[in-house]
Amino acid sequence: MTACGLDFGTSNTTLGLHGAGEPRLAALEGAADTLPSAIFFPRQGEPLVGRAAMAAYVEGQQGRLMRSLKSVLGTSLIDETTPVGRQRLGFRAVIGKFLAEVKARGEAAAGGELREVVLGRPVHFVDGDVAGDARAQEVLGSIARDIGFAELSFQFEPIAASLDYERQVTGEELALIADIGGGTSDFSIVRIARSHAGRADRASDILANEGVRVGGTDFDRQLSLAMVMPALGHGSPLKRKGLSMPVGIYQDLATWSSINRLYDGRTARTIRELEREAAHPDLVARLARAVEDERGHGLALDVEAAKIRVAEAGETVLDLAVLEAGLSVGIAHADLVRHTGLLAERIAGRIASCLATAGLAAGDIDALFLTGGSTRLAHVRAAIGACVPTARVIEGDTFGSVGTGLAIEAGRRYG
């Protein structure tokens, strides 16, 4: 029997296996050990997950794409239903279908049934709501049991990442683990030592945990609202003096979990009415096309890809020809920093609290271990690094450190 660690992420999911030998990440889509947390329900046939789900949507297949599934945990949406083809499914069932497929693919890689799992969880599913946080964990655990896990437990995601990092060290050190993912940013201060790795109880080595519900999808949203949505009329005036286009429509269009609520027919009619009242109807016509043609998820994917290109190359051009021939928006790194800088500051602001809880000064931290996709953003890295300026910066496996660490923990708990 093989124990496993499941890192169900807002943007990507991994599954770590711990049988004989070293922990390893299961191949979940072809040779890839990461699976985008996306599911596509076609009009006919079985749902698709991961890259196949997003490809089906981009290729224009008729159906429903859902992404950032983890973001509904801890919200009232988890108890609601959503239209999928000719039926309505609860969000619990949607998450269950996705995770059941992850489990099945993990079992294919392991060569046997997976019955024991350590589930990764953010330090806070929900900011400032202890009851909501506990509820989110309970729901995730319930879904895991429903899909066939007989034994399960939880571990904080940054603690899991620290277990992966610990395999690299030779001495003892204090490490700040920064896991900046798609939906949350989490920090742990951990005493790291190879000699401690086999201990059954590591509680004394965990000095502090902190987190905030800010992640990569929030950066996408802010970038979309600031740089893309104005081309669709966001912030533009109506003919009646003192009135402008309603903000809510644009906020929903820029937010993964809210895009589908625009496709109800009523919203399209409202936008066409606003187009007649708009001072710049040509801009609002683009918004109407985005909603009527159900281009919202495609726009969100394009904004995310543009953010990554800006992070890597410093600038990019976002092609919006699907809404109007020749339409595009240029985005530079300065734009990304200007419109998402406050998010980076909010993330880094949790480090001071983490240090205070541990009773440490910034100079006491020996190493800063970075994992999670949003650590690729230079201004996020800079904001975090400035909080512990003397620490060595260690690059973890961007998407795999948490899953690997959860596998290590699964081996310890269930091996």
TrEMBL record:
Signal peptide: none annotated. One of its GO terms (molecular function) is ATP binding. Keywords: ATP-binding, Nucleotide-binding. It comes from the Bacteria. SUPFAM superfamilies: Actin-like ATPase domain. InterPro entries: ATPase_NBD, Hsp_70_fam. It holds the Pfam family HSP70. This is Heat-shock protein. It comes from Ancylobacter defluvii.
